[in-house]
Amino acid sequence: MMRKHRKRGFTMIELLVTIGIIAALIALLLPAAQRVREAARRTQCRKQLKELGLAVQTYYDVYAALPMGRVQDTTDSHSFAGWGVALLPYIDQRQLSPQIDAAAAAAGGSVKGVGILDLPIRVFRCPSDICTVITGTSNYTGNWGAGTVDATLGTTPDTGILLPPMPDSRYDGGGVFYLNSSVDFQHIADGLSNTILFGESIGTAHEINSRWGGTTNLEGLASAGEYDINTNMHAETPSALGWDSRHPGGALFAFVDGSARFVPESIHSDATGDDSTQGLFQNLSDRSDNQVVDALE
């Protein structure tokens, strides 16, 4: 008589052990995969900042000055326009410039409300940003200086009427971008490689205050070294006044020489002192404080 052999299956214990091993492997591999993806996003963000930095270099070769932080002139067809508008021809967006010119002329000499400025442009957006609002937004702001950005500059109280360009020291925060600014390399006494040009600026998952085309005040176009890196992002209502990033441990910055570097959030920062006692981060934000800056990466 032949004996029948039953096929042996997995027991419940064996199945649970197998599932546990698979779950453990996933738990080990997932953080590594996330780190790899973030490293790739950080590399892309750095490339974009470098692209913007090189665009500024090309702009400088043409005009012998850096772009205005924001145009503020009743006689200029680009009033309210930010530095991003000036850089369009140098970041492969030349076709947008005549469209903005025509729209601004039709709007009475201002880019305020011009729909073209709502276009999402890749080079202005960090790949790590989680904000769902992409119309006209930017993750990069210019360097106002080591002090506080006065976001009200450029409009008369209550009315919002445009002011003409004025050689007023209020407009200069010590950085390289401010209202009607026209900074040339001779003004950057601390050296092009030691002076911040652009830095990262983020908002929340549903709101971002920085815009590449322009705003009704300076906030959203320039940030200040008064605020420590990545402290603003934890505020209840984040603004564009400080530099912050989704990249762990610090933020990426473009410098006036066209380079792009990562600055750790642990960098010495002290905005309470004068030029000789303030922190290293404030030194990087000031174009001419005559302070020696240690090398970054």
Task: Give a quick account of the main beta sheet: strands, pairing sense, barrel closure.
Answer: 5 strands, mixed
Number of DSSP helical runs = 4
Low-confidence runs of at least 5 consecutive residues: 151-168
What is the tally of beta strands? 5
User: What percentage of the residues does DSSP assign to strands (E)?
Assistant: 5-15%
One letter per element, helices H and strands E, the order comes to HHHEEEEEH
State the distance separating the first and last CA atoms. Answer: 81 Å
Average pLDDT works out at 78
Number of domains: 1
Shape: globular
Structural class: alpha+beta
Rg is 24 Å
Outline the structure in words.
The chain is α+β, with helices and mostly antiparallel strands and 297 residues long. It has one domain. Helices cover 25% and strands 8% of the residues. It has a 5-stranded mixed beta sheet. A hairpin with a 4-residue loop joins β4 (250-255) and β5 (260-264). The longest helix has 52 residues, at 12-63. Residues 151-168 have low confidence and may be disordered.
Give the arrangement of secondary structure elements.
Elements (H helix, E strand, L loop, with lengths): L11 H52 L19 H5 L8 H11 L33 E6 L50 E5 L21 E3 L25 E6 L4 E5 L15 H6 L12
Parallel strand pairs: 1-3
Antiparallel strand pairs: 1-2, 2-4, 4-5
In short:
The protein is built from 4 helices and 5 strands, in the order αααβββββα. The chain has one domain.
